[in-house]
Amino acid sequence: MAEFLTTNGTSYHIEKIITGASKKLILVSPYLQLSKTFFERLQDASKRNVSIKIIYGKDELKPNEKSSLSELDNLELLFFKNLHAKCYFNEKEMVITSMNMYEFSEKNNREMGVYATRKQDKELFSNAVNETLSIIQSSEVIDLTYSSRDNYSLKRIITSNSNNHLGFCIRCKDRIDFNIDKPYCNDCYSVWLNFKNFEYIENACHNCGEYAISSMDKPECYSCFKL
Fold first, then answer.
1. Which of 19, 98, 123, 220 is deepest in the core (most CB within 10 A)?
2. Where do the domains of the chain lie?
3. For the domain 3-141, what is the CATH superfamily, name and number?
4. Whole-structure pTM value
């Protein structure tokens, strides 16, 4: 029987769906920005030779995100422009939810979801799978070309109308102006101001956007800091 989920329950079951996949894994999320934990789970699934499909539909992926995904074997990345649905499933379990695979959503948003299994919720499961397959058939396959973090860091992407570097929010990884004194986007900075903890651990480098232990006090990864 289908089960109602809150934010924490949704995150837990999505992770469980990834770790429990033995043959296939399909993740449908308009916004895509994987947390370190979810990415590591996908790495494990890839090593188990699980066939992975990720369908997204909002925002161009950052170069470092494409590079990370390109490291996963058996992964197919697809883009569907009008996507708004969020659905995650393997061959046995499924979550239909309001939550994107977006790290900021996991940590800050109030989400709802429904957990279902193929065995106990056969009709619901089948209908959701069929709708997802329809979306996949209309999606564009995205080429994943690897680019190393060092090369990307050295480029320090420049805006077309400015001499300022673009960086990344060290919490949500949104593209922002590079500012070593304020390595957060406006929304995340407002949250940080509530506590003003300069050593609070975040998980992205302000310069290259790669996964890294960072903070307001030390916003860059070691490789970027040395440049």
1. 220
2. 3-141, 149-226
3. Endonuclease Chain A (3.30.870.10)
4. 0.67
